[in-house]
Amino acid sequence: MKKCLWLCCVILLCVAGPACAAGPIKIGALFAVTGPAAFLGEPEKNTLELLVKEVNAKGGIKGSKIELVSYDTGGDVTKAVQLANKLIKNDRVVAIIGPSTTGETMAVIPIAEKEQVPLISCAAGIKITEPVKRWVFKTPANDHVAAEKILIQAQKRKQKNIALLTVSDSFGASGREQLKQMAGKRGFKIVADEVYSPKDNDMTPQLYKIKAAKPDAIICWGTNPGPALITRNAQQLGLKIPVYQSHGVASKKFIELAGAEASEGTTLPAGKLAVHHLLKKTDPQAKLLREYADAYKKAYGVEASTFGGYAYDGFQLVAGALKKGATTPAQIRDGIEKNGKMVGISGVFTITQADHNGLDLSAFEMVRIQKGDWALLP
Questions:
Q1: Which Gene3D superfamilies does the protein's record reference (predicted)?
Q2: The pTM is what?
């Protein structure tokens, strides 16, 4: 009888009291840690591992430790689809952070929607969240925001005739579409519209055509290594035409690949992390950016990148829902949508039912490369 009573008490304590710790919460991650997009996936994976380690060291979230299940997609669409299915059906994760690229994300979206598991993408393509998909969110600002920042700067400099040079992948196609739509509305004339393949190793043919069109400026849209190669090719051809790059190269890796001399004067929209040391102390992101940059440098011995910040924000969106009591995929989805204002690495988020990105023009600073480093533009 006494043994039975003791057993009943233990069961009651485990069910109702804090004596028994809750089970781990499984969060999935899909990042291109290897392959051409490794410059995106590596800092994303590093950042997520760092955050999970910090959270678990403090006891987890509401008594539950976070178990990270992370896979390397290699930037391959087919592999991303296979691994997304594995995360949901085998690993039973409650949310997925990633993938790193727009192409992978677009391929994984139907799975997240069908299986009803929140997907928080680290890719920038506007079609990821527009139109709104119930189970899909993303942390980089939409590419139309970056395009608008570039065109506003070009207007200030009275550059009316524009040449486009965009990569032929999902990210490039989306950027090209946004640029063409917005350029027409703002009174720009597109005098050249060239495309290059992610595998191209010489863009001088496209640059020769652009040179013949005599534009006031070139807008290049892509992710490394292509834009860095274009920058070097332009220098080799002696082109003196001002060049804008997209936010897809907003890390020191671009300067390293292109070379400080070739990239001098290149202008682009960058997340505030890249220039956090130049921000005013009153900026709402300044403190968080400094703390993240310091923690990443201490943990990995290299500078934090804007791309790692995408994973940081993705985790914080999920963690915010968990802290409010969410435990199931559906509760996490609802929690992200009702999170209110959140200061993140990529900007100040206001995600709503009608906007699953929640960032505006304030997410970017226009910067120019000067002497191998960033300089803020007024």
A1: 3.40.50.2300
A2: 0.84
